[in-house]
Amino acid sequence: MIRRSTRRFSTTALVLLVLFSLALVPAGVFAAPATAERIDVQVDPSNPAGPLYIVTATLPAGTPLPATVRMTMPQGSRIAWAGEVLGGPLENDPTVEPVIEHGENGYDIVSLTLTKALRAQVELTAPGILVQDGTHRSLRIGYLPVDEVGTVSVAALVPAGGVIETATPGATTSPGPSNGTIVALETSAVPGAEVTLDIRYTQAARPASTTTGGASNATSILIIALVVAAFVFVLVMANKRAKRTAIAEEDEAGPDADGGDDIAAAVETGKVTVPGSDAQEDAPPVAVPEARRGLTPQTIIIAVVAVILGGAVFVMASGEAPGTTRSTNEYTYKVLTDADGNTTLTVPIRLSEADPAHESSHVFDAVAGVAGVRSVKVIYAGPSAEIEYDSSRVDEATIRGALSAGGYPPLS
Predict the structure, then answer these.
(1) Nearest to residue 319, comparing CAs of 191, 202, 216, 404?
(2) 335-390 pLDDT per residue, tens
(3) Neighbours of 219 (CB within 10 A)
């Protein structure tokens, strides 16, 4: 009886140990491989850190999770973010640790295990896909399917001011955000057959900054320098005038004025003659007025330093240091349209309030009432507004109009 109870206890402990061990195994171990029904590749060549290359894989509806999907990326690229796309605010999208395998034909393989959504996304920078020669740009966007996939769409945004010279036959163009042009190529894919989109365009130089902070500060410094010079000139002239006045007053008084000789003798000998007698006694203290000598060099130096320090305080209080004002044309642009028609639009705006949180709520209120808007984010580095919306329900022009009506008109 005791042996049987011991055996039963040992069996129960073993089962619990196995279940506990299974709970510690990552979900990816049990994830079944899945094939995407659609792959979307979107590129923004104007990203300052290098062309922004976004790959989105959409699994068929009803695919059981967890599931592992494989995508490819150009070799030499750097992953900035990888995860699942839930379709709501971007900050809610869960991050997934990518598994990277060395591939062939210039592409590496990226695997993501999905547990919450049917869309996987990888955002990376791919410097090697853009070649610049003066104002000419050559952009080559490619994708190499490694598994069965229904459709592959490859698209790029030519920034505002870009003039398209050539593009791969079959590519279509459409208006893009911020006056840019979207060039896209959509085709049926075959595993191992690369899909490429070649675009050649010219890009005008970035417009000069419209801000005048540096120039205005330089002007302020010049004005302060002139004020200091004028101040020093006035001090010097006042000093000379005071000395001339003192000398003239002494000459007019003469040596005998007001008993000047007696005072001089008393000062020199320390004795004074008693009236009516030749006897002399110690002279009382005599206050000898000093002639006005004008301003001393020390006084002038102190005054000049005070003016310079005051000017420096004025410059710091009136604006930024010369040359540090950022151009309103410099902002991070990002466009993302996923399989469900969700588009993220980033437009530069001008902010005016001192409280970032308070102003963020005002920007949100400007577009929150527009049907189809999913999320709003204010980026203060630009500054710009990042708005995610359903492009099947609302267009970019409506969102721009709402921003303008709310007091935040897009700057471009």
Answers:
(1) 216
(2) 455 555 577 777 777 766 555 556 667 777 788 778 878 777 776 655 677 787 77
(3) 12
Tokens of 376: 């709003």
In Å, what is the CA distance from 100 to each residue of 53, 71, 112, 360? 16, 10, 9, 38
Find tokens 């995610």 and name the residue: 388
Which residues partner with 135 through β-bridges? none
Share of the chain above pLDDT 90, in %: 28
Torsion (CA) 295, 299, 305, 310 in degrees, nearest 10: -80
Other residues' Cβ atoms within 10 Å of the Cβ of residue 278? 6
Residue 133 tokens read as 């020669």
Q: Which residue has the tokens 């007001």?
A: 258
Task: State the Cα–Cα distance between residues 336 and 42, nearest whole angstrom.
Answer: 7
Q: Which pLDDT tens digit goes with each residue over 219-247? A: 556 666 666 666 666 666 666 666 666 65
CA 8, CA 2: separation in Å to the nearest integer? 10
Beta strands in 28-126, from DSSP E residues, in sequence order = 32-34, 38-44, 52-58, 67-74, 78-84, 99-101, 107-114, 119-125
Strands 38-44 and 52-58: antiparallel
* 62 phi-psi bin (left φ>0, alpha ψ -120 to 50, beta other): left
Q: Nearest 5°: CA angle at 355, between 353 and 357?
A: 115
CA distance 129 to 152: 18
Residues 6 or more apart in contact with residue 99 via CB below 8 angstroms: 28, 110, 111, 112
3-state SS assignment for residue 11: helix
Q: Rounded to an integer, what distance in angstroms lies between the CA atom of residue 137 and that of residue 149?
A: 31
Please state, in angstroms and rounded to a whole number, the distance separating the CA atoms of residues 56 and 119.
7
Strands 78-84 and 52-58: unpaired
Distance CA 213, CA 326 (A): 9
